[in-house]
Write a structure and sequence with these properties.
Blueprint: H1 4-22, E1 30-34, H2 40-48, E2 53-56, H3 59-66, E3 77-80, H4 89-92, E4 98-102, H5 105-117, E5 122-127, H6 141-152, E6 157-163, H7 170-187, E7 199-201, H8 208-213, E8 218-221, H9 223-226
Parallel strand pairs: 1-2, 1-8, 2-3, 3-4, 4-5, 5-6, 6-7
């Protein structure tokens, strides 16, 4: 079994290769190591191999890792990438660098409320259901556009871009990634500050090459780093 350090090195090489194929600078793509369901010891191993950004999906598990003596003083940049219920926001606000999973206007409003209460400025992404699958969370693309004006005016929070989980079929996934990129470009002219809309969080272990070709700025990789859970 290969080490986590070896896995990270191989993924970074693949990111570089995909960027070169797409005519992009590899520095434009950030690797988020998805550490959910894996112990703090493996997060520490990945950190020691040079990985700084980690993604968690479950609030209680994230809080346990955030406070774990193995990790708490390392300066890890935490991303919350799972579905986030409004009543859980108060538990993680101020502890994560970026929230990926805001999937409705009411959740964004609660995030804004908590940010103001805590005197914080919070960055977040909107989760978009690009595949139309009813089993997935996320706003429909039309809903994103109809809610954009309200989202842009919420105080204490800054919309930095979009996130999606694509279909298992790689050809379909690439089309969905393209759709997300187009949606972000559509949002920019109606944003009060288009320069802040920079992030496309898309692509996982099985499809991050396609995501990079379509403009991903963050890819979320778990299995290819940590192995199967």
């Amino acid at each position: 079994m290969e080490s986590i350090a070896t896995n990270i090195e191989e993924i970074r090489e693949q990111i570089t290769a995909a960027c070169i194929e797409a005519g992009r600078d590899p520095a434009e793509v950030r690797l988020i190591a998805v550490s959910k369901t894996h112990p703090a010891s493996l997060v520490r191993e990945a950190f020691d191999a040079g990985q700084i950004e980690f993604g968690e999906s479950y609030v209680q598990e994230f809080l346990e890792k955030h406070e774990d003596p193995l990790l708490e003083e390392l300066g890890i940049e935490w991303h919350f990438i799972g579905h986030l219920q409004s009543n859980k926001i108060r538990s993680i606000i101020g502890k994560v660098n970026l929230i990926h999973g805001i999937d409705k206007l009411s959740t964004a409003e609660e995030l804004s409320k908590r940010a103001i209460q805590n005197n914080l400025q919070v960055d977040y992404l909107l989760e978009v259901n690009t595949s139309g699958e009813t089993s997935k969370y996320g706003m429909a693309p039309d809903e994103v556009l109809s809610s954009a004006e309200a989202l842009f005016t919420l105080p204490g929070i800054t919309l930095r871009g979009l996130m999606t989980i694509a279909s298992p079929d790689r050809a379909m996934a690439q089309e969905e990634f393209r759709h997300l990129r187009t949606l972000l470009e559509t949002l920019k002219p109606i944003s009060p500050d288009p320069s802040k809309l920079t992030e496309l969080s898309m692509g996982m272990s099985g499809d991050f090459r396609e995501a990079i070709h379509e403009g991903a700025t963050m890819i979320r990789v778990g299995t290819a780093i940590f192995g199967w859970r």
